[in-house]
Design a protein that fits this description.
It comes from Candidatus Viridilinea mediisalina. With 111 residues, the chain is mainly β. The chain is built from no helices and nine strands. It has a single domain, classed as Sandwich (Immunoglobulin-like), CATH 2.60.40. The strands form two sheets. Strands 2, 4, 6, 7 and 8 form a five-stranded mixed beta sheet that branches. A four-stranded mixed beta sheet has the order 3-1-9-5, with no helix packed on it. It is globular.
Length: 111
């Protein structure tokens, strides 16, 4: 049995010369976010990679925003606690898109 949860973030990439990072967590689900220039969106969410439960990208307009490096996992300080999964995205063109992530086990990984 797989549990899938969706988190949706609206991202508007606009022409500007701003850099840096904009940090989001699950409490930011559904909010509009404005990225300027080459600004990086950093999404940090709880995950259980040891049991196969991770966040995966489902929808994103790749002409406006691109993934920026591989997903990172930061181990929890206590055994059995949730880890933090970090995903990075960068604005590359002006426009508006929705970033959608699903949480669950990828069926392809456990066949």
């Amino acid at each position: 049995m797989c549990l899938f949860v969706t988190i949706g973030l609206c991202i508007r990439a606009v022409n500007a010369t701003s850099t840096g990072e904009l940090m989001l967590t699950q409490v930011d689900n559904g909010h509009h976010v404005v990225l300027r220039g080459q600004q990086t969106l950093v999404v940090q969410l709880e995950a259980q990679p040891a049991t196969g439960f991770i966040w995966e990208l489902v929808a994103l307009d790749a002409t406006l925003v691109r993934t920026f490096g591989p997903a990172e996992f930061h181990a929890a300080p206590k055994l059995g606690a949730s880890s933090i999964q970090t995903l990075r995205f960068q604005a590359i063109a002006a426009g508006e898109t929705i970033l959608r992530l699903h949480y669950g086990r990828s069926p392809q990984r456990y066949v």
